[in-house]
C-alpha cells in the first residue's frame, strides 16, 4: 500500500509544471462502488443526503483530518497561524496532485515564510486514508459539510473494513 | 555583583566565576538583584516575581511604550528575554535566533546568533516552532534549538563554545524548552509526545557539553534513575520496575512522557523539579496500565539525576493532560507551621500544593469550577487509591472506548493551563494564573506507530463550556486553601506568562495582543495596550539607568494559534453552522516583536 503511494508521488513530482491549478470538476457523485462515491471522471467524491447523512468516507475523513492534519491546518480545514487553510483547496487541486502532496510533502521556505509539510506516504495513519481525507476536504470545499462533526453517516462498508485492515496491518 | 557588572559590563562575567564553586551560586546572587532578570522564570523558584516597585498600582495607568524591537521571525513567540547588566538576550522561534542588545547604547545589537537547521524539523514540532528561551550560566548563554542541538554561546561575543545533540528529530524529538543551569551542569528536557518519543531530562557539563546523566520518564529503573528502595511516592518506596510493569510489553519505548516545561530548583534541598507529559498515543485503549511515569511530578538530585520522590497526577491519561507545567516553590505557613511548598497548576484542571521536601500531597483542588472529568483527588491517606483522581465515567474516553466520541469533557486537551507560567507574589501569598476555559469532545481510535510520524490516535473538537462564550480566565489562587480569590474573564485563552511585582501590580498578555496590568489584590484592570501581535510570551521586568521597564514578546502562534485562529465551533449547532465563537484571526496576525514599557519621564 505504501509503495503505491510512493510511486504515485514520484509520478506527480515528475509531471511538468508540478502542482498546477486544475479546472474545478463537478463534484457530484454519479456512481458508487462499495460505499465509495465517484464523480463523472471516476475520482472519489462526497455524498450528502437531504437529511444531512454523509457517506462513510466524508465521516472517516473528518476523523482522520482531526487527528493527523488539524495540528497544523487548524480545525475543520480553516487554517491556523502555522499552516494554510485547506477549506477551499480542493476546488482547484486535482485528485492526483492531492495524493502527491500528501505522500511526498511540500516545502515553502523563504524569507517570508517557513512552511514545511512532511511526507505522509510512509505513515499508514494517513496513507491508508488518503481517499477519506480527499473526500472530506472536497466536501468542505463545496460547503457540503460545515464546521461541525457530521451528525449522521452511512455505515462503514464491508469492503472498506477489509481494505483498512490490510493497509494498517502492512508493517 | 551588581557593581562589578555595571562597572565593567560583560567583560567581568567570564572572570567573575573565579572563586565561585558553582554557576548556581553566581546565579542565586545575580537573581537577588531585581534590576536584572537572569533566569527564564526570574529565579530558581519559578516565582516570576520582581522586587521592583517604581511602577505600582497608582501609576501603572500612565505606562507608555519606551521602545520596540522586531525579531524578524513570524511564528509563535513563547518565553521572554533575559536581562544581565546592560545586555538583553532575545530569542526567537525557529530558526532560533538569539540577539544580544546593549540597553545602555540605545538597544544596539551587540551580536546575533542564527544557526543553520534542517527545515525538515518544522513539521515534527507538534504545535508550532516555538522556543521558550535561553538560560545563562558561567559566562555562557544556553539555547536548545528546534533540532535538539543544545548550544553554549559566549555571552560576550555570541561565539559557539560547545554544542551537542540532545535527540533525534528524525524520530520526532525536538527542542522547545528553556534550559536550567544548576551547579556545574545545564539541564534540558525534550519534546515529542505526539511522535512516541521516550522522553528524558539530560544534564550536560557546563564547561565541556559532555553528557553527565540522562533520566527517562519511563523505562527500566536504570534508565529512569530510580532507586526502588529510596525513590518514593506518597512517602513509600516505589519498588522495582515501577515504570515498565505499568506498560504493556515494550510500549514504554515509544511512551512519550515528554519534558518540555519549566524546571525549578531548591538549592537548600538540592532538588530539581519538573513534570512529564502525556503517554503516547492519545488513544488510551492502546496502552493499558498506569503508564508510569508519564504525567508525573519529579524531584531529582541534580548531581546524579536520582529521583527522590515522584507523584503521578493523572495515571493512564485519557485526555492529553500533560503534567509539564511549572512547579512554583514557596516558603509559607500552613496551620501555623513553616512549610517548603511546591505549587503546580496542572493541565488536568487541578492545582496541587505539596511539601517539596517529602512529596506529601497537601491540597488538590480544581482551579476552574467547570472541570468535570474528575470529582477530585482521593485525599484519604489510608485509602488504596490515595492521591489518585476519581474519574467520572461519563467523561472517561477509556470507558467510552475506541471509535466512540466522548462529549463535553472539561478541560480540553489544552488543559486549564498549558505551558504559560503563573507567578507568585510573597506580598499577597497569591498565585496569578493564566488559564484556558475550553471543553472538548474526544474520540480515540487505533493508530499505528511509524518512527518520525505523528502518533496521535484521537479526534477532538474544542469549544467554551456550555452557555459561556469566553475561552479564558486570569485568576488569583490561594494555594493553602485551594480557592480562587478573584477571576477575570478573557475572550480567549490566556497563553502568556504572568509577572507579579512589589509594586502591587500583576502583568500578563492576551491572545488578541494586549499587555494588561491588574491590581494584585483585587484583579482590577489598571492598564492595557495592544501590541503588534497576539501574546504567548511571558512578561519580564528590569531596571536600566534608574527606570523600571516591563517587556513582553508578542507573536501569535503556538497551540493557541493553531486551535483558535479560525475560531471554535459549537458542536451542538446544526449542520452548516460557521464560527460559533470569536476567531483569533479577526483580532491579530503573525509577527514577532518585543515591546518594552516604562513610565513617562
Automatic annotation (TrEMBL), chain B:
Binding site for Ca(2+): 194, 278, 320
Keyword ATP-binding: no
Highest taxon listed in the record's lineage: Bacteria
Keyword match Hydrolase: no
Disulfide bonds: 126-127
Region (Disordered): 224-243
Keywords from the UniProt entry: Calcium, Disulfide bond, Metal-binding, Oxidoreductase, PQQ, Signal
NCBIfam families noted in UniProt: PQQ_enz_alc_DH (TIGR03075)
Name of this protein: Methanol/ethanol family PQQ-dependent dehydrogenase
Amino acid at each position: 500500500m505504501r509503495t503505491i503511494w510512493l510511486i504515485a508521488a514520484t509520478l506527480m513530482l515528475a509531471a511538468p509544471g508540478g502542482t498546477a491549478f486544475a479546472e474545478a470538476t463537478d463534484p457530484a457523485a454519479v456512481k458508487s462502488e462499495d460505499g465509495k462515491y465517484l464523480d463523472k471522471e471516476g475520482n472519489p467524491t462526497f455524498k450528502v443526503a437531504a437529511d444531512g447523512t454523509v457517506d462513510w468516507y466524508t465521516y472517516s475523513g473528518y476523523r482522520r483530518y482531526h487527528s493527523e492534519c488539524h495540528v497544523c491546518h487548524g480545525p475543520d480545514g480553516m487554517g491556523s497561524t502555522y499552516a494554510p487553510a485547506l477549506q477551499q483547496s480542493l476546488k482547484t487541486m486535482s485528485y492526483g496532485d492531492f495524493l502527491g502532496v500528501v505522500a511526498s510533502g511540500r516545502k515553502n521556505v523563504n524569507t517570508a515564510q517557513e512552511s514545511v509539510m512532511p511526507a505522509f506516504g510512509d505513515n499508514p495513519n494517513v496513507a491508508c486514508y488518503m481517499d477519506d481525507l480527499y473526500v472530506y476536504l472536497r466536501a468542505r470545499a463545496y460547503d457540503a459539510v460545515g464546521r461541525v462533526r457530521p451528525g449522521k453517516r452511512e455505515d462503514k462498508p464491508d469492503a472498506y473494513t477489509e481494505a483498512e485492515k490490510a493497509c494498517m496491518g502492512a508493517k | 555583583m551588581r557593581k562589578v557588572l555595571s562597572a565593567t559590563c560583560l567583560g567581568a562575567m567570564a572572570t567573575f566565576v573565579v572563586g565561585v564553586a558553582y554557576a548556581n551560586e553566581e546565579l542565586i546572587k545575580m537573581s537577588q538583584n531585581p534590576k536584572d532578570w537572569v533566569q527564564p522564570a526570574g529565579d530558581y523558584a519559578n516565582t516570576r516575581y520582581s522586587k521592583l516597585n517604581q511602577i505600582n498600582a497608582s501609576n501603572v495607568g500612565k505606562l507608555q511604550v519606551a521602545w520596540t524591537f522586531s525579531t524578524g521571525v513570524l511564528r509563535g513567540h513563547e518565553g521572554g528575554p533575559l536581562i544581565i547588566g546592560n545586555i538583553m538576550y532575545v530569542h526567537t522561534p525557529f530558526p532560533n535566533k538569539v540577539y544580544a542588545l546593549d540597553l545602555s547604547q540605545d538597544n544596539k545589537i551587540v551580536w546575533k546568533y542564527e544557526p543553520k537547521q534542517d527545515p525538515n524539523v518544522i513539521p515534527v514540532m507538534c504545535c508550532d516552532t516555538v522556543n521558550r528561551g535561553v538560560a545563562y550560566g558561567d559566562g555562557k548563554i544556553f539555547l536548545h534549538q528546534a533540532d535538539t542541538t543544545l548550544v553554549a554561546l559566549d555571552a560576550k561575543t555570541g561565539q559557539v563554545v560547545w554544542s551537542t545533540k540532545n535527540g533525534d528529530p528524525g524520530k520526532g524529538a525536538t527542542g522547545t524548552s528553556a534550559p536550567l543551569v544548576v551547579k556545574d551542569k545545564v539541564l534540558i528536557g525534550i519534546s515529542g509526545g505526539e511522535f512516541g518519543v521516550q522522553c528524558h531530562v539530560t544534564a550536560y557539563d557546563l564547561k565541556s557539553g559532555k553528557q553527565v546523566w540522562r533520566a527517562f520518564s519511563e523505562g527500566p529503573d536504570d534508565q529512569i534513575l530510580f532507586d526502588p528502595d529510596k525513590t518514593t511516592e506518597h512517602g513509600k518506596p516505589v519498588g522495582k520496575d515501577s515504570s515498565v510493569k505499568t506498560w504493556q510489553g515494550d510500549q514504554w519505548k515509544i511512551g512519550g512522557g515528554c519534558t518540555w516545561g519549566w524546571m525549578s530548583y531548591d538549592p537548600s534541598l538540592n532538588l530539581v523539579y519538573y513534570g512529564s507529559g502525556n503517554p503516547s498515543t492519545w488513544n488510551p485503549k492502546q496502552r493499558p496500565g498506569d503508564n508510569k511515569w508519564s504525567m508525573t511530578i519529579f524531584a531529582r538530585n541534580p548531581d546524579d539525576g536520582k529521583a527522590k520522590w515522584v507523584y503521578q497526577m493523572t495515571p493512564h491519561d485519557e485526555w492529553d493532560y500533560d503534567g509539564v507545567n511549572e512547579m512554583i516553590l514557596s516558603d509559607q505557613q500552613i496551620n501555623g507551621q513553616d512549610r517548603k511548598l511546591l505549587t503546580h497548576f496542572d493541565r488536568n484542571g487541578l492545582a496541587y500544593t505539596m511539601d517539596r521536601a517529602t512529596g506529601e500531597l497537601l491540597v488538590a483542588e480544581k482551579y476552574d469550577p467547570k472541570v468535570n472529568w474528575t470529582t477530585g483527588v482521593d485525599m484519604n491517606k489510608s485509602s488504596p487509591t490515595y492521591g489518585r483522581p476519581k474519574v467520572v465515567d461519563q467523561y472517561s474516553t477509556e470507558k467510552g472506548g475506541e471509535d466512540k466520541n466522548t462529549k463535553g469533557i472539561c478541560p480540553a486537551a489544552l488543559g486549564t493551563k498549558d505551558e504559560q507560567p503563573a507567578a507568585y507574589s510573597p506580598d499577597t501569598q497569591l498565585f496569578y494564573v493564566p488559564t484556558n476555559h475550553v471543553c472538548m469532545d474526544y474520540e480515540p481510535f487505533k493508530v499505528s506507530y511509524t518512527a518520525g510520524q505523528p502518533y496521535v490516535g484521537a479526534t477532538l473538537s474544542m469549544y467554551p463550556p456550555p452557555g459561556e462564550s469566553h475561552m479564558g480566565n486570569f485568576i488569583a489562587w490561594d494555594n493553602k486553601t485551594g480557592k480562587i480569590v478573584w477571576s477575570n474573564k478573557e475572550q480567549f485563552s490566556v497563553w502568556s506568562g504572568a509577572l507579579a511585582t512589589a509594586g502591587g501590580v500583576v502583568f500578563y498578555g492576551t491572545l488578541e495582543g494586549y499587555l494588561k496590568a491588574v491590581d494584585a489584590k483585587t484583579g482590577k484592570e489598571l492598564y492595557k495596550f495592544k501590541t503588534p501581535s497576539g501574546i504567548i510570551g511571558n512578561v519580564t521586568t528590569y531596571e536600566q539607568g534608574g527606570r523600571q521597564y516591563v517587556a513582553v514578546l508578542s507573536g501569535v502562534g503556538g497551540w493557541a494559534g493553531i486551535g483558535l485562529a479560525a475560531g471554535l465551533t459549537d458542536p451542538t449547532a446544526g449542520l452548516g453552522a460557521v464560527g460559533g465563537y470569536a476567531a483569533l484571526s479577526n483580532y491579530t496576525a503573525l509577527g514577532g516583536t518585543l515591546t518594552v514599557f516604562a513610565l513617562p519621564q
